[in-house]
């Protein structure tokens, strides 16, 4: 799940302005990291998702939507941010290994492709068996690419199924480890009895294409119970935990009742 805060009135350059001032603005942005736990429907912590908090020195108290930030910076900067995240996670290797917890990090398609050319990054990733990359949109493979090449960094997760390119056509092109269902789709289908039945059938079908389905954006007790009674494997959302600072990772709840 991506953190998408509402942006107050900021003097941010309009998207698509290819000028030095706009580029300088985005490269000046500062980053901090939080995480959000992901719990199985039985209530055990299975993973944490790393989330990026973006601000600008001119407005340090106002957050910039991460999607906007990553769409504006070049792939080389996205790789630099990824290395920053991995350095941070490597400090917690013992936690992930001891508790058998996974850590998911968001990447986009162009960044995933570029990662294959960065040997230093490959060397960082190789010993991190608990690390998973979560595609923020489905990646159509170039003709010269293969499933093996795109998955050389380990099992891939697909984020936000039901939005954009993350749809049924994507399930036959890449074998994802886990697939996340977008909150918007979850909420839309649970409004009616017919929709609830469709949600169950949808997850049953999706389970044929992956190890399990994770429902995003669970915000109430009732929603959590619906997920627990569904064919979903896990869930994340404000009801289970809001995003919290990475420094609190050692205090995360391992079992959610």
Any key phrases for this structure?
257 residues; alpha/beta; 8-stranded mixed β-barrel; 11 helices; 35% helix; 23% strand; globular
Low-confidence stretches: 4-9
In angstroms, what is the radius of gyration?
A: 18 Å
User: How is the largest sheet built, in terms of strand order?
Assistant: 1-2-4-5-6-7-8-9
**What is the H/E string?**
HEEEHHHEHHEHEHEHHEHEE
Outline the biggest β-sheet: 8 strands, mixed, barrel
Counting DSSP E segments of at least 2 residues, the number of strands comes to 10
Helix/sheet category: alpha/beta
Q: Give the overall shape.
A: globular
**Fraction of residues in helices?**
25-40%
Give a verbal description of the structure.
Strand 1 (30-40) and strand 2 (45-56) form a beta hairpin. This protein is of the alpha/beta class and 257 residues long. The chain is built from 11 helices and 10 strands. 32% of the residues are buried. Helix 3 (75-90) crosses helix 5 (109-115). The protein has an 8-stranded mixed β-barrel with strand order 1-2-4-5-6-7-8-9, surrounded by 5 helices. Helices cover 35% and strands 23% of the residues. It is globular, with a radius of gyration of 18 Å. The model is unreliable at 4-9 (pLDDT under 50). The protein has helices at 20-28, 66-72, 75-90, 93-99, 109-115, 119-125, 147-150, 168-171, 183-189, 193-206, 221-228, and strands spanning 30-40, 45-56, 59-64, 102-107, 131-135, 156-161, 178-181, 212-215, 234-235, 244-245.
